[in-house]
Amino acid sequence: MGRLFKKAAPAVLMSLVVLAGLYLSLQVYLSGQSLAAFCLVGLLGLAVYVYTSTKAYNYRYLFPGLIAVLLFVILPIAINFSIGFTNYSSKHLLSFERSTQYFLDQTYTVEGGSLAFTLHPDGAAYRIRLEAEDGKVFVTPALALQNKAVEVEALLPTPADAPLAEAADTRTLIQNLKALKLVTVKLPDGLSVSAAGLREFAPVRKQYLKQPDGSLLDQESGDVLRPDMEQGFYKNQAGEEMQPGFTTVIGFDHYVRIFSDRALSEPLVQIFIWTVLFAGLTVVFAFSVGVVLAVLMSWEALAGRAIYRVLLFIPYAVPGFISILVFKGLFNENSGEINLVLGQLFGLTPNWFTDPFLAKTMLLIVNTWLGFPYMMLLCMGLIKAIPSDLYEASAIAGAGPLTNFFKITLPLIAKPMTPLLISAFAFNFNNFVIVALLTGGRPDFLGTKIPAGTTDVLVSYTYRIAFEDSGQDFGLASALSTVIFLMVVLLSLVNMRISKTTANEQG
Q: Known Gene3D superfamilies for this protein (predicted)?
């Protein structure tokens, strides 16, 4: 019995997983995401093949990792890359079909023929009583008023239906007015009415009618809206853009704009230069401080080395965002301790957050503080690997500490540290956290169409384009992030090449 269970358990488990996957795919398909549903079915079929076929046995252990890479690495990159070829922004959030449907759902109130109405509770729902000017009364079925469009038919009440609960008061009407305006009541004569205030329903009519050529006729004004597939808007006869816009493919326009639009390219060039300087100087300063401290911590005659090591490691142990926020308070121009000390000693109160040079200096100081413990630890490990015979021979030759440092220590740790320094450069090239938390990219450049700061790095500038600008141009931000991604890929390839060369030299 136990053997039979062990043999049947994998098949049963696989069957349950397949059923769950098919159910999930069906739900995704019913929600309107047909492409995603087909992809899920494809992945499910591939999983069944991998775990049931003897030919794919070697991939059974790799399959979960490959799927994770596909879903969490390749798919986001592909989505970001595709958005860069569209005009997707806060003004173009909807698809063309949804934008068209938005206009077709719009209604307007027709003058004349209004009906007085009262709202009557019916359990947890409500019934609407309409009374025409000729005295005819119509009553709707019980409705659960919600914030969604509802169309119901109202009939002449029969004696059994005539008794209604006491009409709701004005307060209840106000609370439910938004939901009432979404209710369209169809009367027996075919007329449709909707709430036009707290006391009356008025005839409504579809504002836009779709024409055979795809244009939309405004039945209220007689205007015609035509879709502009290049700009992503419906435009009226006067050429005005009608909201909401829709997403459309614009090709390489964003990439051309990045390098040709002076309003974008000029701050972009300055931000790129600062990004390279920020990443490079951070690595130089952090490595310089780290290697000097590592040499001192390796000095056996230094008393209390263990305590110093713990104290110097604290900046690396404390979460970075906490340290950044603490420094933001310390550098506060009005009440920060740094300005208080400088003011007392030298009479200086630097404008750390409003002067571009000082803001950049502050960023480098804080980032060096966060980065030097890591460099110090690496250098300490490398220094221990240096043969002591070299220092003994140097001492016999009469060389001093500086000679030992520049002729022995630094050359021997420079090669193994080179790939790590390049990695640190790539990390700081995309160091969004410190810029966002400390300066927010400010102070801003003057006279730019898109907000751009003197302390922005490329990634924070991209973030501001996508989420902080009033236009929220997601397509442009995606194109820019793709360019940054290619830069980082290039840095990674250089790092791999140097690492390989270093490994061959050491071998």
A: D-maltodextrin-binding protein, MBP (2.40.430.10), MalF N-terminal region-like (3.10.650.10), MetI-like (1.10.3720.10)
pLDDT above 90 (res 52):
no
Q: What is the CA radius of gyration of the chain?
A: 35
| Whole-number Å distance between alpha carbons of 178 and 431 | 46
Check pLDDT > 90 for residue 490. Answer: no
Q: Per CATH, the architecture of 257-506 is what?
A: Orthogonal Bundle (1.10)
Most confident of 25-39, 74-88, 143-157, 463-477: 74-88
Distance of CA 150 to the CA centre of its chain: 35
- Residue pair 94/244 in contact by the 8 Å Cβ criterion: yes
Note whether 157 and 139 are within 8 A (CB): yes
- What are 343-392's pLDDT values in tens digits? 999 988 999 999 999 999 999 999 999 999 999 999 999 999 888 888 88
d(CA 384, CA 417): 14
What gap in Å lies between CA 368 and CA 185, rounded to an integer?
Answer: 68
User: Quick check: 261 pLDDT over 80?
Assistant: yes
What is the CATH T-level fold of the domain 107-206, as seen in this structure? Periplasmic binding protein-like II (2.40.430)
- Tell me the DSSP string of 244-282: S-B--B-TTHHHHHHHH-HHHHHHHHHHHHHHHHHHHHH
Residue 61 neighbours by CB under 8 Å, 6+ apart:
none
Non-local CB neighbours of 143 within 8 Å, separated by 6+ positions: 125, 126, 127, 128, 150, 152, 183
> Are 107-206 and 257-506 in the same CATH fold?
no
Q: Is the pLDDT of residue 166 over 60?
A: yes
Which position has the token pair 């360019």?
483
Contact 365/278 with Cβ under 8 angstroms? no
How many other CB atoms sit within 10 Å of the CB of residue 405? Answer: 15
Task: Check residues 177 and 362 and name the one with the higher pLDDT.
Answer: 362
- Residue 504 — pLDDT band, cuts 50, 70, 90? low
How many angstroms separate the CA atoms of 27 and 208, rounded? Answer: 33
Distant-in-sequence, close-in-space partners of 384: CB < 8 Å, separation ≥ 6: 298
CA 271 from centroid of its chain's CA atoms: 21
Per DSSP, 57 falls in state G
Asked whether residue 54 carries a pLDDT value surpassing 90, the answer given is: no
Longest alpha-carbon distance in the chain: 119
Angle between helices 474-506 and 410-429 (to 10 degrees): 160
What is the structure's pLDDT at 113?
Answer: 74
- In DSSP notation, 147-200 reads SS-EEEE-BPPPTTT---PPPP-HHHHHHHHHHHTTEEEE-TTS-EEEE-SSSE
User: What residues does each domain of the chain span?
Assistant: 2-61, 107-206, 257-506
